[in-house]
Structure formats: structure tokens, C-alpha cells
Amino acid sequence: MDVCIKIIKNNKDFFDQSLDEIKLLKYVNKHDPADKYHLLRLYDYFYYREHLLIVCELLKANLYEFHKFNRESGGEVYFTMPRLQSITIQCLESLQFLHGLGLIHCDLKPENILVKSYSRCEIKVIDLGSSCFETDHLCSYVQSRSYRAPEVILGLPYDKKIDVWSLGCILAELCTGNVLFQNDSPIKSFMWKVVSGGIPVADKMVARGLKVDTRCQRCGNEGESSNHVLFSCTVARQIWALFNFPCPENGFDSQSLYQNMYYLLLVSKNPKVQVETRKAFPWILWQIWKNRNLFCIEGKSFSLPVTISKIRENVQEWIHAQALNEVTAEKMCKNGFMLKL
């Protein structure tokens, strides 16, 4: 019998996640002994030379790779409407089964749906490594960005419906050949999370019932909030100052994130401030947040000059991209094209 052996990287986080996946696969396989619900079958697992190895059924290409190959090869179109209907039914049956067990997949995407048979158009849903029970403390960072549901982006409570959103995005992509929500601007998602209070800082985690250190990991002050990390923390204040951003006369508001965001929007529309400066605030916030995460998660830190340099590079790239878009739009208008805004 041919099998697939998945070798887990020798890393504690990967190891822990894989153990969770093994437990969930055993659980769903136990409740689906006849293999009716299109979920990956686990055969065995073992530890060898400091690596965890998972033995499961051997499948074919995932939908992302196969769809790309099918389009680029120029052959007969595989994803016809009848086949898309068949794939949809199988995915819905799989999700209905998982949801009936109280599970949320949390990472449904084309890469996690594999072909079992090309001729019969059979698929299997894989990768339960990010899955969880609805009764668990739900993580605020789930789903791949292009398939992420609005409630997850906004940091709101979510449930099994997020899997249905992901499936809709997948089907639209297979049908049209284009990713429905492009993954080319992570900063947009980040800004949505900032204004909605959705970035995972200590006060948000405590509100969700998690036990975490409530101090700011950069400056040690008690009470790590979104506003503190992005505006009040010593490191954040240094970055705003070194960038020469026109901050409020009495400094940023230490209590109100929305007051500070409102101020940044006013500056961005002030013609007296240089374009490179007034348009820079999203990248300043983004770099502050990235630096904070690198420090907390990986123990890495960037020097302030390097941080400022990265921000300026990002701003210049954005301004250049905007200029190219304007030139392209002007050419299209001259050629008689109608732009849909």
C-alpha cells in the first residue's frame, strides 16, 4: 500500500501543532470509520531521530497546484461547472461532518484540498493543524489571508461559519481563475485590525480569558493595549520622533486609540506637510507592530535607524506604485476604457 509520510520539522511549535493534528485526525477518523466524509485518513505516527513522522493516505495534487497546472498547460479545462458542483458537495459534506463534531477547520484553502481521483473528481480535506473545537478559547489569528472571514479580520467572535466563507472564496477562485480577495496588501488588513481593536495584545487576550503577562514586552509598563504599543510605548514614541512625523503638541493621547487615529487622518490630508511624511503613518504603525512581534516571538530587535530606513523604503515604494497606477489609469481613459472604481 502506498502511503504519504509527513516529516515534522524539529521545532517545538511545529511539534506541538502536529500532536494536536494527530489527536484531531484520530478523533474524526474514529467517527467516520467508513471514510464517507472526505477527510484525510491517518494510518500511523512515530518518532525517529528527533523528528515526528505522520503516516497517512497518499493523495494527488492540491487544488491550487492542479488549477494552476491546468490553466498553464493549455489543455482541456478540468474545472467545469459539473466538477465544481461535485467538489462543492464533497467540501460541504466534509464541513457538515466537522461542524457536527463541534470542530472548526480554521484554514480551508485550495492548498488544503487534495485530489483523490482525477477521473471521478474526488477530493479530500486535509490539515487539521489549525483546527479547534467551538468550545476552545478561539485564537484571533486564524485562516490564510485571502480566505479570512470578515469577523476574523475585525477581531470579532467567530464560529464554524468562517469555514463556509473560506469555501465560497475557493469556489469563486476555481470558477474565475482569480483570487477573490488578493493577498497583495497585508497592511490593509492590519489597519482594519488596528481601528477595530483586533490586534492580539495583552488586554485583548485577557478579555478572551487567556492568562498572559499584561505588561508591555518592550518597555515593561503595566497594561499592554493597542494604543500603548503603537503610540505610548517608549520604543513607539522614539520611532515617531525619529521619523520627524508632526506629532500632537502634547504628545499622542495615552488613552484613546481612536483619537490618535483621527489625528493621523487629519495629518494625512494636510497639504502643508510633505507627501512622504503625511502618507507615512500606516507604515510607521506597521513597522512598530512588526518589530514588537519579532521581539516577543523570536527575541529579535531592529535598531531604530534600520527601522526608520525600512519605513522610508516602504513609503517610497507605495508612492511610486501610486504614480504608476495613475499613469495607467490616464492611458486607459484616453483609449476609451471605462474604469470601475
Number of helices: 13
- Count every beta strand, where a strand is a DSSP E run of 2 or more residues: 7
- Taken as a percent bin, the fraction of beta residues is 5-15%
End-to-end span in angstroms?
A: 55 Å
Helix share, percent: 40-55%
Summed over residues and divided by their number, the pLDDT gives a mean of: 88
The gyration radius over C-alpha positions equals 24 Å
Describe the protein's topology:
Layout: E1 3-7, H1 12-30, E2 42-48, E3 51-57, H2 63-73, H3 81-100, E4 103-104, E5 113-117, E6 122-125, E7 132-133, H4 150-153, H5 161-176, H6 186-196, H7 202-207, H8 226-232, H9 234-242, H10 257-268, H11 275-278, H12 281-298, H13 304-334
Antiparallel strand pairs: 1-3, 2-3, 4-7, 5-6
Helix pairs in contact: 3-5, 8-9, 12-13
Characterization of the model:
The protein is mainly α and 341 residues long. It has 3 domains: 3-57, Phosphorylase Kinase, domain 1 (2-Layer Sandwich); 63-184, Transferase(Phosphotransferase) domain 1 (Transferase(Phosphotransferase), domain 1), CATH 1.10.510; 187-330, no CATH class. The chain is 49% helix and 9% strand. The chain contains 13 helices and 7 strands. It has helices at residues 12-30, 63-73, 81-100, 150-153, 161-176, 186-196, 202-207, 226-232, 234-242, 257-268, 275-278, 281-298, 304-334, and strands spanning 3-7, 42-48, 51-57, 103-104, 113-117, 122-125, 132-133. The chain has a 3-stranded antiparallel β-sheet, with helices on one face. A two-stranded antiparallel ribbon has the order 4-7. Strands 5-6 form a two-stranded antiparallel ribbon. β2 (42-48) and β3 (51-57) form a beta hairpin. α3 packs antiparallel against α5 (161-176) and α8 (226-232) packs across α9 (234-242). The longest helix is centred in the last third of the chain and has 31 residues, at 304-334. It is globular and about 70 Å long. Keywords: ATP-binding, Kinase, Nucleotide-binding, Serine/threonine-protein kinase, Transferase. This is Probable serine/threonine-protein kinase dyrk2. Pfam families: Pkinase, zf-RVT. GO terms for molecular function: kinase activity.
